[in-house]
Amino acid sequence: MTMLTAESLALIDQECAKYPAEQRQSAVMAALRIAQTEKGWLAKDTIAYVADYLGMPAIAAYEVATFYNMYELAPVGRHKVTLCTNLPCQLQGADRIGAHLQNKLGIGFGETTPDGRYTLKEGECMGACGHGPLCLHNNHQMHAHLTPESVDKLLDELK
Amino acid sequence: MSLNTPDTQVCLWTLGYDNPASLATYTANGGYEALKKILAEKTPAEAIIEQVKISALRGRGGAGFPTGLKWSFMPRTFPGDKYVVCNTDEGEPGTFKDRDIVRFNPHQLIEGMLIAGYTLGAKAGYNYIHGEIFEQYQSWEVALNEARAAGLLGKDILGSGWDFDLHAHHGYGAYICGEETALLESIEGKKGQPRFKPPFPASYGLYGKPTTINNTETLASIPWILRHGGQAFLELGKPNNGGAKIFSISGHVNKPGNYEIPLGTPFPDLLEMAGGVRNGHKLKAVIPGGSSAPVLPAEVMMGLTLDFDAIAKAGSMLGSGAVIVMDETVCMVKALERLSYFYFEESCGQCTPCREGTGWLYRIIQRIEHGQGRPADLDELLRIGNNIGGRTICALGDAAVGPVASFVKHFRKEFEYHIENKRCMVNH
Fold this sequence. Notes:
The complex is a heterodimer of chains A (159) and B (428). Chain A has 159 residues and is of the alpha+beta class.
């Protein structure tokens, strides 16, 4: 049974091509990202499938999936919002944004709304502190200079 | 100082142009000229390294190690594969300069990596990009494709007979991968756990091959140095602290952002460029080089110039040039609680003193912040710190201790007030 679409596998093949032929394992981080983008999260059999595709032990891929904190090992909402709460963002008002997000969604950090629409997470430094407070949407899109109003607008747009 | 010209700014000069990241903007302003000259004249590697040494370029990622010296460690004539790796895993709280280089001047970084590859005898290079900036990972791939199409990457570059290729590797959320050997493990598709050194990457690096790892800003400075000469770069800054440097200023200033200014610029000048302390508040403290750098009180910071040597002499470090500004409304206990949580969260777990110790530090600071501190806690924090520092494979343990020791040293009264009165003396 094929666990990933042909499109995802083609993207993984592109990543493999960056490394020496005998170093397919180098593509595991990208492959897990691609798998997560397709599936929403990484089930154990998805991780095992990726490992098998790259010719590495499943446990080694599982180690990677559990080490890096942007991989999701349990289902999350359609829209994951990760707010940076580290010191520079905190100084620029991240606490206020965090409180607003929690009130608005009725969930705490690490939780998902009952309708499965949103997951709220607390993140570490995203390397864009000058634009804080900021958040990531589904790991890949950054939203900066957050205000309660811009957060409301963003949440409305995420259907 | 006139801004946005390739002569007065080293890395962020393209910001004055409509399409700052494009190949056309870069080449219209002298871009890739240094590389072309090297390839046409077959400049010996020794001559390139000599210019880098003269420039007094020091690593822009945090350690400040002289780049020319690092390059001279590479066994560049040794047979077999060798690699150049760029560290854009920019996750040190307060630091956001490398993202802007990739965003606004990717071709200068590509040219810098090409020159490094040529000088060090490498067959390929990888740029490791911080997980949270996926959009820059994508934009860097676009720039690589532009360079490839122009014959600047791949086989027989510009008809010189020299082959070199460059790729992006995308991180996925691990501060520790900014440590160079953890970064190599990560490119190899493993957990990002630092390696014992020695052997150093110059002898045993990526896939066990000789490898040189430099920070993004370091590599992006190389074309400037070779175009204008090492001496000109040195003269932009001050002795032993060559060049301009990007300072990422965040926190309580009116205009947070990146400011590329000569090393040796007085701190009050940078503060003024950033619009001063927000809304007329009073400066309380500054972390001058990213969250791992010891905090300095306002009165010390206002008397300092921004260069490696001056800040080290004052008991902190220039680090990555990430300046975190705090005004008088900041509770230092709360600020330290957040930083300590960061190191606890990001410890890779490999060494016991760091894995356990960062948790102990965080939990003690957390209880002080929440009114449950005990009289012996401050001494306990310092004792734990002494048992982490210098006892781990990499510097993350030391990085976790730096803030704790310096916050307690300079703001001990605030911590004592928290413990005695079970509340904050700043925010009543």
